[in-house]
Amino acid sequence: MVKASFFNIVRFSALSACVLVGAFIYWSLMYLKPRMPSEVVLERKTEQRHVIFVKVHKAASSTVQNIMLRFSLARDLNVLLPLDARNHLNDAGSQILPHLVVPHPTGGRFDIMCDHVIFDESIIAPYFPEDAVRVAIVRDPLQQTLSALTYFTHVFQKPELKAGLDRYRDAPLEGFLGHPEQFYDPSQGAARSYINNRMSVDLGFDLRDFETSKKNISKIRAFLDKLEKQFDLILIADYFDESMVLLRRILNWGMKDVMYLEVNTAAGNDKGFQDSNLNQRPFLNSTTMLAFRNWAAIDYALYNHFLTVFLNKIEKEELFQEEVNAFRQARDSIAKFCVQVIAPLPAHNRSISIAETQWTDAFSVLESDCKLMAKREVDLMALAIENQKARIKTSKGDTSLVSKNDQQSL
Prior knowledge:
Elements: H1 2-32, E1 51-54, H2 61-75, E2 79-80, E3 112-113, H3 121-124, E4 133-138, H4 141-154, H5 159-167, H6 172-178, H7 198-202, H8 210-213, H9 217-230, E5 233-236, H10 240-251, H11 266-269, H12 286-295, H13 297-316, H14 320-342, E6 351-354, E7 363-366, H15 367-374, H16 377-396, H17 404-409
Parallel strand pairs: 1-3, 1-4, 2-3, 4-5
Antiparallel strand pairs: 6-7
Helix pairs in contact: 2-16, 5-6, 6-12, 10-14, 14-15
Subcellular location: Golgi apparatus membrane
Membrane topology: Single-pass type II membrane protein
Protein name: Galactose-3-O-sulfotransferase 3
């Protein structure tokens, strides 16, 4: 009896060992071998429709805004918008004045924000559902500040910048980089400047003792830690295609949703820009760069920190570069098609089809899509405002918010 029990135990142990070895071999073959792209199916969930996008000045944010507004228009989402497309929610502060905002059609919470306002979580959060994804974008501080300098002297002229350019007429970029304080009016304050650590200002950096804060490492560190807790994703303009792919994955949007054409550049807004001294490559040396880095110390800390965070994120993403390559290939085809449509050139097609891939369903881009992608910021904002006012009119029968011109166009 004991002998039989012993052999039964041995047989059971051997069988168990075989099962475990087999399971390990199967697991090894399935999960330890290199996987080919065709074997990977990225999980697709319900698209996220609640997004708070902080529109940071001169950091490719108008292109992202275009993406957000197109997404909202296609789905009749409710966007937190100013009443007038020529204005912003608040370009120089955090307060949002309700009487200057297009109301929610049914009095509920909004779905998307993508206009300029200095970020303050306590002020913005009540306007949106709790699950809203918070997104921002930053750019290399040198490139961002030079872009702002160009834009706000050629498109929307600021007196203090014009005065600085007049001092350094022959070499304005070198003059600015070496002496940025001469392009700044301290009486206006950092919230009304576009060349003094504007990215950090837009993201809510405490403006008290602003100039001395540039050397306050603990204050800057606390600011960065706070942003890490508040934001789900901070995009990098210098890695724009990678940013769009990561945004698409996090929001579970389609590839078409994050397609873009470049909008709101200084060169595209001013024909005289190409002949300007600001269109020259600046001569950089250690002295001018040290002066500028000290001036833009908060923005440099912001950018370097979130560049590292961003690169770490995409490094962990599966088959990320493969999707970026597919995105660029599709975007190149769409850009060529849109040039033909918008020109328009004779005998062009009225649509282009992009084949299904493992990252997106098949989709078509129409002439109307191209025109939306190419719209100027103010024009697309106006269209979104009209759309929202029309839905207010439909839901409440109230035409008080719709002008006579709007009523005729609607």
